[in-house]
Structures are given as structure tokens and as C-alpha cells.
């Protein structure tokens, strides 16, 4: 059974804030994840050569699938032998780990091959969830602490990219962008530290809203996209055709699902730490199973595979809110947004520097939680090597991903993510480096 130590949190996992607070904090979770929620479907739509209408539908489908799977992951459903969902506050969404294989599969068989391949691959992840329990014995504190730290550190490049205006933008690094990011950062930090208990948990939302409003007179917000968006749109089953179930289309996604399993175990460990909850092995396995289950059902409505978002874990220690009711509300909000494209578009045009100011603090908080976890580890020679190697390889891959791009076969996929690369290194060293007597 789980044990919970309730110390620094305003709302624990089982706590139920009032409806107004729940909606505000749920919306805050959606804003935090929104860039990741819409980025992958936009890329996939581009690879598939979709027009504006089909691209807009794929974004709405991604929001709908993310909302449904977030509720499943946060609530937890099913009998013990097929429990789906860890029951921790979690936001789910499409993952970049599947973009590279998607390009190859869509090129070979079209969008129906993409959906068919990911659905078959999802069955692999569901199967692997039953082997998570024996795997967890290889995750002592020195490994989990390294993974949690690495999770925050590798996301920092994303936050800095946002702060600069978005990688590839014409005004990247413009002092105006940096100024907006700094403003949002300071507002969040000050409200979080000095704000009353009812206001502090919404610091990220308040900071983002103020930053958004400031950007409007500066000409950084284009409402033309909102005007062009549809008011209402219903989901459609197999809008792009019946999935093409061929093994050859599933194989390229195997590495993506293996990476997802590794990263989800790490995210679950992180969630356990920041929610002050001691997780059972079965609960972590149920979290991995929710990833696989969500990835299987998402293509029915035209979305790609679902994965647990690590960035939202940073909201929990920062806002001192760990209520799963809030994450479930976030899922409901995403479902509603998927039905009203104008509303979703209004959030999607939020200037990148606004997200950057919030992201720096959130992702830094995750890294700090990992450091806090490592502070309870004895730093002998063995453990120092494990931590140094995990952080070194993980950050190195994040900084220079081309270094491992030409690795053969499945190794390229496993080491394509800094988090998975660092985790693999920590796991291997934990096994081969024995404790000295």
C-alpha cells in the first residue's frame, strides 16, 4: 500500500480544491503543456502533406485524445490485473520520439500506415508494462535521483528556446523576447513566494496571462488565426481512413515505444517524489500501461501515440498542488477545447517568450527535486560515477543529438532522447559497478 508524507503541498493527491480553484489550476496545466500538445500533430500533418482543414482537425484530435488519456492516467481504471493509469496528476500528449519513424512510415504507406503502425506498437508497450515490476529493482535512489535531475535539465533547452522567441523565428534572441520572458519569470516567482495560499498555486497561469496581455500592444499576438478558426467541430472515427495494420509499419516505432517506457518510469518516479507519494511497483506499471492504452485508442479519432508529459511535473512543487482532481479537470478542458477550435487557437498563439519565462522556473524546479533526492544518497566513488555518467551522457545527447544519430538500428532510437540515454547509462552502471565491501 502507498504511504504519503504530507508536508509542503497545499493540495495533496487526494485533496479536492473547490470548483473555481480546480478549473483555474487545470487550465494552468493545459497552458503549460499546450506547446507540446500541438507541436507534434502540426509536424505529422506537414509530413502527410495535409491542407489547413485536415491540419486543424489533427490538432483538435490530439487535444481530444490527450484529454481522454490524461483523465485515465490521473484517475486510474480497471481491475488489478489490467489497471490502467497510475492515479497521479498527469497530463498526456503526443511525443516527439515518434516523429522520425513517422516520417519514414508515412513516406512508405501514407497516414493510414502511420496510424496502423503506432497501434500495433502500442500493444508492445502494454505488454512491456507487465515487466516493469522486475525492472524497478534496478532503480535505486542514485538512479532515480539522476533521472529526475536529468529530466529537468534536458528540458531547460526547450525553455530557453521559448524565451528567445522560438527556435527558427526571425527575431530569435531579440531583447524584447528576453524581456517578456524575464517579466513572466519574476511575476511567477514573486506570486509563488509571497502570494496567499489561494493565489500562489495559480502563479504560472497569472504570470502567463499578464505576459500574454503585455504582448498584445507590442504586436506579438496574431488574432487573425483565431478569426479563421472554426467555432465548433465534432471528432470523427477514422477520418483519414482505416489504419493499415502491417508489421513492417510497426517495426520503426519499436524504439519510440521503448524510449517511452523508460521515460514514463522516470516521470512516474518524479511524480512520486514531487507529490510526496511512495508508489508501488504495480502503480508505476499501471502508468506505463496507460501510455500504451492511450496510444492504441488515439488513432481511432485521428491522433498519434500518447505519452506522459514530464514538463507538467514541474508545476507540482512550484505551485504546491498535487491534486489529481486538477489534472482530471485539465483533461476535461482539453476535451472542450478540441470541440471549439477558436478557443484552442487563442491559446496556441501565445507568444513563445511567455512560455519561456514559465518553463525556466518549472523545469529548474524538477532538476532541483532531483538534486534534493540525490542529497540523500551516499556519494561514494561508485555513486559519483553513476551520477556523473548519467548526467554527462544525457546532457551531451540533448546538446548534440547528431552524435548518436548514426548508431545502428534500435540503438539510434534508444539514445535519441537525452532522458532515455542518461537513464540507460545509469541503469547499466548500477548493474555492473558493484558496491565495495
UniProtKB/TrEMBL annotation:
Pfam families: Xan_ur_permease
Keyword Transit peptide in annotation: no
Keyword Transmembrane assigned: yes
Listed transmembrane segments: 30-50, 56-72, 84-105, 111-131, 138-164, 176-195, 202-229, 249-274, 326-347, 353-371, 383-401, 413-433
Cell location: Cell membrane
Membrane topology: Multi-pass membrane protein
Any one GO MF annotation of this record: xanthine transmembrane transporter activity
Superkingdom assignment: Bacteria
GO cellular component: plasma membrane
The entry's keywords: Cell membrane, Membrane, Transmembrane, Transmembrane helix, Transport
Similarity annotation: Belongs to the nucleobase:cation symporter-2 (NCS2) (TC 2.A.40) family.
Name under which the protein is recorded: Purine permease
Organism whose genome encodes this protein: Trichococcus shcherbakoviae subsp. psychrophilus
